[in-house]
Every structure is written in C-alpha cells, then in structure tokens.
Amino acid sequence: MEAVPPxxxxxxMARLQDLLAAEDISLALIRQPTDLFYYTGTVVExxxxxxxxxxxxxxxxxxxxxxxxxxxxxxxxxxxxxKELPHLVGELAPExxxxxxxxxVLPAALYMRLKEQFFPQATIKDLSGLVRRQRMLxxxxxxxxxxxxxxxxxxxxxxAPELIKPGITELELAAALEYRLRRWEHQxxxxxxxxxxxxFYGHVLSGISGLAAAYTDTPSGGLGFSPAFPQGPSKKLLAxxxxxSIDMAACVNGYVADMTRMYALRxxxxxxxxxxxxxxxxxxxxxxxxxxxxxxxDIYRLLWEKVKQHGYGEYFxxxxxxxxxxxxxxxxxxxxxxxxxxARFPYPLEPGMVLAFEPxxxxxxxGMVGLEDTGCLTPQGVDWLTRSxxxxxxx
Length: 395
Description:
The structure is a single chain. The protein is α+β, with helices and mostly antiparallel strands. Helices cover 32% and strands 23% of the residues. The strands form 4 sheets. The chain has a 6-stranded mixed sheet with strand order 4-3-2-1-5-6. Helix 10 packs antiparallel against helix 11 (296-309). It is elongated. The two termini are 38 Å apart.
C-alpha cells in the first residue's frame, strides 16, 4: 500500500482553510469518502472537522486499527455515536458560525440530524463547489498517479486484438479485459461523485448495441444483461463488419484514467471509416484550442459548429433526447470531476487540470464510432497521458 505523501495532505489542507476563510465558513465537516481520502490519505466511516483557522480533527467511528488512520497528519479522535459530534468539534468553531457540508452528496437524513439535533444554531453552507474546484487542479503527485492508471489502460488495450474473435460475446471480452486490469494494478473501484451514477469498469459494445442509451449520463450506454443493471456489455456476439468500442477506466492509488479505442473484425462500412476520420479531425481541433485561459464553452461551441458543418449534428454524443451535454470531463479521484467541456462551464482552463476528451458518433444501423483520451493541461497545451495508437485495429 502506498501512502499519500504528507506534504500533499498539508498543502491541500492549507489551501482548503484559505478557501474556508474566504467563504466565511467557520467549520467544514467533510464526510464523503473521496473528499476524506483527498484531505486525510485514507477512507473511514467518520468526519474530518476543519476550522477556518487552527488544526483539523479527524473523527473516526471505524475502523480503529487500520494503519493509514494512524499515519494521517491530523489529530485522530474516535467516537461511537453521532451525538458525540458537537462535543468533539465544540472548541473548533463557534456554535452560531457557518457550517460547511457537502450538500451535493450528503444524505438528506444525515443533513437533517446534523442541522436540527447537533448544530441548530449554525448557518449551513454548501461546501461541495469549493472542494470540487480545489480538486480540479492536480499536483505533480496526482498527475503521476493518473499517468500510472493510464499506463495500465495502455497495457490492457494492447492485448485486446488477441482477445477479439468471431463468436465471443461482449461480456466475455469485457471480463477478459477486466481480469487484466485488476492483474496490472487497477484497484477495482471507479468512484463517481453524482449520487445516482453507477459504473463498473466500462463499456465494451459492438454494432448496434453501441447505440443503446443507458440511464447514466454518458454518451454510450449498452444493453447490459439484466434490467437491474441495464448498461455495459451484453451477451451479444461480436460479428464481422461492425464497430467494437472498448471504453474503460483504470484506477491506481485512487486516481482514474479513461480511454476509448475502436476495433473491428475484418473491416467496417465506408461510412464508419469516414466518421472515424472526422473524429480524428475533432481531436486536432481540441489539441489546437485547449490552452490555459481558454473557456471550455468556447471550445465546446467551436467543436459543435464543425460537427454541424459536416452533417453529423444528429449523430453526435448520443441520439435525440438522450444526447449528453458535454464533450469532455475531468478525471482524478472521481470519473466525473471538473472541468467540463460544455456550453456552461464557467471556469477557464488552467495548467494542472486533467480531463478526458471523448467525441463520439452514433451511426444508425451501424453503431458507435469514437475515441477518448485522458490528458493534462500544461502551459503549452495538452499532454496526453493515455498513449495507445488511435488507429482502428482490424482483427
């Protein structure tokens, strides 16, 4: 197990406390597992209590024996019941101050208990946007972890041509790839922030199953093989002449990389090759425009204008009402981080942002054709962390 360097944690905490002071938040109570890991270096059942000034306190209900709990740089206090919280944080901030909570993910029942039973005099303020904006900019350490995850993806995708055969099902191909991801260091869990988003390792889709939208806010969905989890690979057999898309995430030491590549048995229809050439053109536009200081909304509009000019507007990023409203998303400790390449994302690009760019076309009666790569924004532009060839591999 690799511990997060202490300097990472203390630097993050200093920045958080600066942000709390600027937002006039007296005390932050952090609960969500990803945020706990970001600031403490471990995941527990409990809270991290962070005053705008002074030392934070790590409140742990369980487990009590895990070494990482003892390695965190913050004071650790164990508790058994939620009613102990006011006493444990009482001297960190005034009772009538402003309490910051992660309102985008905190269960309503827990919020009500905190507000009504334990901190009735406090003013509640949403902490989520502040935390997400801080996490949007990655340190050199974080970029290194995402690069490691990208290397796991590159290594796994390299063996995909050996596994793709006529008669194999999407599910069998996915399982073979997932086995290799785990064997080569993928931790097995891909976290998402949105409370109703669920994801396994990714989508392996072939032919018209690539056109099936899922309940997740993703361009591609897939059929799955159960109404209880209607997304991802199905028992459909791979067949010659249809696009096979592999869209997978790998996670190393908590950090995610995301990638999509295309394959086919024997060949593809001419319109699929033409669509793929256009996807490569969109990557060139993105690479030329993605620079520090540029608004993602400007890139989004430029790309969409090019899509419409080439007659692909009806087929881009989904079909009809199921079309998604972004062309790229941040990755880090979660798969759905900031920034977003969308029409309304308000913050300009900055060095240290890491995002996955994923232009995809949904061709009627053929399937999905697209690409996705994870890259880091530098002063010079995009440094791609996933490095596999973007060519369609014909098997």
